[in-house]
Design a protein that fits this description.
The structure is a homodimer of 555-residue chains. Chain A is an alpha/beta fold. The first copy, chain A, has 22 helices and 18 strands. In chain A, the strands form 4 sheets. A 7-stranded mixed beta sheet of chain A has the order 12-13-14-15-16-17-18, sandwiched between helices. A 6-stranded mixed beta sheet of chain A has the order 1-2-4-7-9-11, sandwiched between helices. In chain A, strands 5-8-10 form a 3-stranded parallel beta sheet. In chain A, a hairpin with a 2-residue loop joins strand 1 and strand 2. Chain A is globular and about 75 Å long. The N terminus of chain A is likely disordered. Chains A and B meet through helix 3, helix 5, helix 6, helix 7 and helix 18 of A and helix 3, helix 5, helix 6, helix 7 and helix 18 of B.
């Protein structure tokens, strides 16, 4: 198995899409998959039959993001195929077979997040995704459909939905399919069992009876019915038909060997310590306070600009800097300006653009929660961990806050400040806010914290209120922090990933937390098993005509 | 790494215990761990410092079971150590290092189930477990404490609780510790992070402040306080002080190469098809209908006898027959007699013994749900899938029911019959009944089924009501069933395990379902990673003085 180390860039634009055709007609957008066989992300495989790799999904993610911000008028999105008789064959098998374990896992995580963002748009943005399956949808192709709110399957006697991963490749459907079948669509587990063990899949009336799709549509009426359904979903949307979108202009980013610089974020790598230091810069000026002013600021409005930069940095480091195991979070700036930005978001939560910005902050923080990196936040003098930024303290596996000042520094002691954004709009994937997760044992404490919104909380208060883990003074700070980072770097990254995944999601479970916590863990396990990826494993041998050897022992 | 294939017997008795001392004084039992260094289950390691292997846990499981059935008067159980200054060092590391992947996973599953049965006793049997940590509790030692309802730690300036698996061995605490910390005891995730990365653990006031233990007790008053707490918990119990227990007499079991025979259960192996056929025999006579008569029948009361046989067969096949990937369930007998047994259980649910029997049936079915084997149930003429036995139809990954009769057979067509036991007393680990899980999409359907209790449901009705997956007639039956079994045997067992784990637990999550679904999956993954089990992995090299090589790449 060849292990490829890729350098992957996530920046793209509809004008550059190779694999998708985006068409917007009034309230309805159509995203047609038309994968270019000869344009894989890395050499070594052909993207036949609308099969996809990370490159295809990066474009899909970009399209989903732009539809939200650039097209307020779009209230329904139809995902379909531009190819005849095939909808999508799922993740490209040769790509999987030649990828490293880490790349497979990262690929699945990113594609999962994109599908979650599709569901987030349907649920929270008034932009409902429908799937028009106009040919066979296999594996990841059907999983993409499962992420949509309504699934239409062409009734042509041959087009089917299938999850053939287990019988053909000895792996699981890697993009949430199993969980969405039984938890989202509430397909009976025995029916799901039959589907997942039948490589050719199911079609026709049984697919409807078993709730695998929502309706069958004859080919002759397919386009008309798709249009009809999309129009009906669009009619229920609260998105404004007459608003103007904002352009998601290209990010200004400088990538150097050990530094990544954006406008509001600098990430500095320490390769010896296996650490990336994220320095978040607070707003430099008073953020706009009205929807019109926010709209005018567009992509330069600080919360949106920061979310985009964080999003890009997180996926960049995940994919391209695997040996950097710890992400350290710092901030610098003026609490009052961060607070003002939060106030604008809280006060105008009903405005379509403000809603999108807050949802994007939410999703970005959720990306952090499921990143397989240790998160350590350092609260130092000069920082501005207020409201939205305070979430980076709460999201951390542990946090340190300096008690007092640096010797010989004029900076006043660090403080924390709560804002309304800490109490609802930015929940984790399992529905709890990070404060609720922090105080699972004492829900009433969260109410008491609500009364402290806007107050300056120094280190002693922050510790007493349970907002930070440790509060060393300047005598102990450097040794204590360095020791923690060195120690972290010495641990097995695999065990850290398993531990952090287990500790971060106390409390209830949702579709998303199940997909990342349960399904992904099983998939990771299977992605290492000889039956799948060994020299004679099913994934390795697929398409060669050779039969894989199965070790029948159950574990 | 040596791969040991063991033949493990789960039958034991307090008179034969090597590792535990069981003492009963009135309402309080004490289970003192006193592991014999020189008595490991297989050669190759010494059980120093009260470290344990599966043999130690088989005795613990036996003790927990017997306390419930043989000692109705016991209302509180104290787990402690009989060794000075050490409570329990956790799972033996040398044992783990020399075990196969499958054995490690099986070992963790069984120890997890034993700890769950401890919690089940505290919650449902009025037999509350307390942990008296009278020395250091490391790893699995502390996890055993976490399974108890109240944890006392001796305050002697040195005894600590710790989970050193990650820093020392590059694996996770494998027996639910992470989940119990944050979900059961609701320890803050950042505090849990500190504990799990501090190999020496925590003690003293911080252990209490962080809720790692419930109280610190000076050594001078330790025994007295333990007694006091146990007495207080016992006082709240509803277990009868004056009832007589029933003896769990040795199981009558014949083990042959391809057959396992009990009184009410025969398991026949087909090694070519990688299949075990479980044939459950219904009651031969009318089961007793009063508590007194049930008490008099004791271990021969059909539901209890069957539960014990199933329990033994399941753990036997899991541990000793790993290459048998599919378990096929059949039954034979009289519906009316099964129904009568269920009626007795339902009518006398408040009786301490009936409660224990029903709880045991529940736990046995839950063991089935988390077994990494495909479950296929065949409902044929002559079967008696009523009530409790109908759960074996619902628990299956899929089921087949013969529509009509066998050609040239006098047996009437198969039927199914619902009983009150299908509607609450035998829930899955995530709190739903199997019927609720089956009809997650239509909760009102479960109410309609409740009205059908006691009715004979033929194949067509059972299918229409959604109780079975397929209803072939006798012309198709043999081909269809054989094809399904052959197909199952051809699939990767690893992918099947991941798929079944994902499909079986739709709906809510609990501590137990999180432990089996999320934590175990991560642990399985880590148990394969070179950082833990490779030639230079931490688990392999532990105790050799050599330093393990860590591949720092995050996955």
């Amino acid at each position: 198995m060849a292990v490829k180390e890729l350098y992957i860039d996530f920046a793209t634009h509809p004008d550059c899409y190779k694999h998708w055709k985006l068409r917007i007609q009034g309230r309805i957008a159509t995203l047609a998959m038309d994968v270019r066989e000869d344009a894989p992300l890395v050499p070594g495989y052909e993207l036949k039959l609308n099969s996809y790799d990370l490159g295809v999904d990066i474009e899909l993610y970009d399209a989903v993001q732009r539809l939200r911000f650039e097209h307020p008028e779009v209230a329904a999105v139809v995902i379909t195929s531009a190819k005849p008789r095939v909808f999508c064959a799922g993740a490209n098998i040769r790509m999987l077979a030649q990828s490293s374990h880490a790349h497979k896992v990262n690929f699945c995580k990113f594609t999962n997040e994109t599908r979650n963002s599709i569901e987030d748009a349907s649920t929270h943005s008034g932009q409902t995704y429908l799937c028009a399956i106009n040919g066979t949808a296999s594996g990841g192709g059907y999983e993409l459909a499962l992420a949509c709110a309504h699934i239409m399957l062409v009734d042509d006697g041959s087009s089917a939905v299938s999850l053939p991963e287990l019988p053909l490749l000895a792996v699981l459907p890697g993009t949430g399919g199993l969980t969405r079948l039984v938890d989202k669509r509430r397909v009976r587990h025995d029916h799901a069992d039959v589907l997942c063990t039948t490589s050719e899949g199911l079609r026709g009336q049984r697919a409807v009876d078993w709730k695998l799709v929502d309706e069958l549509v004859p080919r002759s009426r397919f386009d008309a019915v798709v249009q009809e359904r999309a129009t009906a979903f669009a009619a229920r949307s609260d998105r404004p038909g007459n608003a103007t979108g904002i352009a998601l202009s290209p990010l200004l980013r400088t990538v150097e060997a050990d530094q990544l610089r954006y406008t509001h974020l600098t990430v500095t790598l320490d390769r010896d310590l296996a650490t990336a230091s994220f320095l978040i810069q607070g707003p430099r000026d008073m953020p706009p306070q009205t929807p019109a002013a926010i709209q005018a600021a567009g992509a330069s409005f600080w919360p949106l600009a920061l979310a985009r930069e964080l999003d890009d940095a997180i996926v960049h480091l995940r994919l391209n800097e695997g040996a950097i195991g710890t992400w350290v979070w710092r901030s610098a700036g003026d609490h009052a300006l961060v607070e003002a930005a939060d106030t604008a978001l809280a006060q105008h939560a009903d405005n379509w653009l403000v809603r999108e910005i807050t949802l994007f902050l939410k999703r970005t923080l959720q990306r952090l929660d499921v990143s397989s990196r240790s998160l350590i936040t350092l609260v130092e003098p000069g920082s501005c961990f207020t409201g939205t930024l305070l979430e980076f303290v709460l999201a951390a596996d542990r946090s340190y806050m300096l008690d007092g000042t640096w010797a010989e520094s004029p900076l006043p002691p660090a403080i924390l400040r709560l804002s309304p954004l800490n109490f609802g709009p930015l929940p984790m994937a399992h529905t709890l806010t990070r404060l609720q997760r922090q105080f699972l044992a004492a829900p009433e404490h969260v109410k008491r914290l609500h009364e402290r919104i806007g107050h300056d909380l120094n280190a002693a208060e922050a510790e007493a209120l349970g907002l930070v883990t440790f509060i060393p003074d300047d005598i102990d700070w450097h040794d204590e922090v360095r020791l923690a980072l060195e120690e972290r770097a010495s641990f097995s990254p695999d065990a850290l990933t398993g531990m952090e995944s287990s500790l971060r999601f106390a409390g209830p479970e949702t579709l998303e937390s199940k997909i990342f916590g349960r399904l992904s863990a099983w998939q990771n396990w299977i992605f290492q098993r000889p039956n799948a990826v060994g020299a004679e494993g099913a994934l390795t041998l697929y398409g060669t005509g050779k039969k894989s050897l199965v070790d029948k022992r159950r574990v």
